[in-house]
């Protein structure tokens, strides 16, 4: 309901999240026969894209999301060259979201049912509580696979993130149809978010050490998030700009570009430093960094980016999130939904990280927190 509500608000003249009664769509706007064809076809494109296998803790994956993004880009350019009305995605947003949500429910039911035939060591620690509703939501099986094809890994980054980019492009093309050319605000939003998605898919293997892959089961929470929430709420800024164009000065654009650049630099450098340290702590780029030992034999970074705050990657993420919203101006709250939601999400995730690390590292974690007192925002939080 939240996804559909936000899309309706973004397409309404007022674009007010506080409007009452809210802008409700007609039933005709919720369905289009083209929508399920596009959703299933989009997933099929990524299923048949080239794969390369790697192994991580005895689980086989096939990461090639960046290849899929490039193939998708070529296909989209061919369609545009043939005159395909990509701007029609603006009218299809609601039907596409309905189909993605329905697919999320059906896929989650499949995952829940098949988990009862999975061996005990394949279940997620937190997803086997005996409460059917909770286990369905959080996911019983950790990394369900069909043969060597990992379903969670595939859904985590590929169709949803690439779909987000395609929706953004559709919004840009719709603006071109209406006004003759894309606005500077629309170009910035598309460029920033394309960079973010391309970076995520280029560094796809880094997700193997994230909480989603290592700890969380694959249930409705992640399925819905990957296939429906990400592409249809993360693209709200572009959808908003179609109906609510914003004038942006060159100086304002330069400041926003600088903010996004600073956020991306912090995000990428801190993640790269962490991944390099995990892969090879003797590498010249991390060998001289200060660390503290733990009872598990692992060492914790207390200098470099990870000596600034405990989650510098979250700091960079939030700076970028703000930069994505600023091109939409300050007259509406809707474009800032993402940065507000993402702040809550990352603070909650940081609290989960904190609990798990304290349980895992014990006194060493307390020592680390003394060295690095700030969690996300230096001198603030």
Automatic annotation (TrEMBL):
Q: Which UniProt keywords apply?
A: Cholesterol biosynthesis, Cholesterol metabolism, Endoplasmic reticulum, Lipid biosynthesis, Lipid metabolism, Membrane, Oxidoreductase, Steroid biosynthesis, Steroid metabolism, Sterol biosynthesis, Sterol metabolism, Transmembrane, Transmembrane helix
Could you state a single Gene Ontology molecular function term?
Answer: Delta14-sterol reductase activity
* Annotated EC: 1.3.1.70
Parts of the chain that traverse the membrane: 33-54, 66-86, 92-113, 181-198, 218-236, 248-267, 321-347
- Membrane topology term: Multi-pass membrane protein
The cellular component terms of Gene Ontology attached to this UniProt record, alphabetical and capped at eight, are:
endoplasmic reticulum membrane; nuclear inner membrane
Q: Where in the cell is it found?
A: Endoplasmic reticulum membrane; Membrane; Microsome membrane
Return one Gene Ontology term, BP aspect.
cholesterol biosynthetic process
Pathway linked to the protein: Steroid biosynthesis; cholesterol biosynthesis
Show the catalytic activity.
Answer: 4,4-dimethyl-5alpha-cholesta-8,24-dien-3beta-ol + NADP(+) = 4,4-dimethyl-5alpha-cholesta-8,14,24-trien-3beta-ol + NADPH + H(+)
Where does the protein principally reside?
endoplasmic reticulum
Highest taxon of source = Eukaryota
Protein task: Catalyzes the reduction of the C14-unsaturated bond of lanosterol, as part of the metabolic pathway leading to cholesterol biosynthesis.
Q: Which PANTHER family match?
A: DELTA(14)-STEROL REDUCTASE, DELTA(14)-STEROL REDUCTASE TM7SF2
Q: Which family, according to UniProt?
A: Belongs to the ERG4/ERG24 family.
Protein name as annotated: Delta(14)-sterol reductase TM7SF2
Q: Taxonomic lineage of this organism?
A: Eukaryota, Metazoa, Chordata, Craniata, Vertebrata
């Amino acid at each position: 309901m939240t996804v559909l509500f936000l899309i309706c608000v973004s397409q309404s003249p007022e674009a007010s999240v506080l409007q009452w009664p809210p802008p409700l769509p007609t039933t005709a706007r919720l369905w289009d026969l083209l929508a399920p064809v596009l959703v299933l076809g989009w997933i099929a494109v990524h299923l048949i894209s080239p794969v390369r296998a790697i192994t991580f803790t005895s689980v086989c994956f096939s990461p090639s999301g960046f290849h899929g993004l490039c193939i998708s880009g070529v296909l989209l350019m061919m369609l545009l060259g043939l005159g395909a009305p990509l701007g029609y995605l603006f009218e299809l947003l609601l039907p596409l979201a309905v189909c993605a949500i329905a697919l999320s429910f059906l896929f989650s039911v499949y995952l829940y049912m098949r988990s009862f035939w999975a061996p005990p060591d394949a279940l997620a620690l937190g997803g086997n509580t005996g409460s059917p509703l909770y286990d369905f939501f959080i996911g019983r099986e950790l990394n369900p696979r069909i043969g060597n094809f990992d379903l969670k890994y595939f859904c985590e980054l590929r169709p949803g993130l690439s779909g987000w980019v395609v929706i953004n492009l559709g919004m840009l093309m719709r603006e071109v149809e209406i006004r003759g050319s894309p606005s500077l605000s629309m170009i910035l939003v598309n460029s920033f978010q394309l960079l973010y998605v391309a970076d995520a898919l280029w560094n796809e293997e880094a997700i193997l050490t994230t909480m989603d892959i290592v700890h969380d089961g694959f249930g409705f929470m992640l399925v819905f998030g990957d296939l429906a929430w990400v592409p249809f709420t993360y693209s709200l800024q572009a959808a908003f700009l179609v109906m609510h164009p914003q004038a942006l000065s060159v100086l304002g654009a330069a400041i926003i570009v600088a903010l996004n650049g600073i956020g991306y630099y912090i995000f990428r450098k801190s993640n790269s430093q962490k991944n390099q340290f995990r892969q090879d702590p003797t590498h010249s780029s991390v060998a001289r960094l200060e660390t503290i030992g733990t009872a598990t034999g692992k060492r914790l970074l207390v200098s470099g980016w990870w000596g600034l705050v405990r989650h510098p990657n979250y700091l960079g993420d939030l700076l970028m999130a703000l930069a994505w919203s600023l091109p939409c101006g300050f007259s509406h709250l809707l474009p800032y939904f993402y940065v507000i939601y993402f702040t809550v999400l990352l603070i909650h995730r940081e609290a989960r990280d904190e609990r798990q690390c304290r349980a895992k590292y014990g006194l060493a974690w307390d020592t680390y927190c003394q060295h690095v007192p700030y969690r996300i925002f230096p001198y603030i939080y």
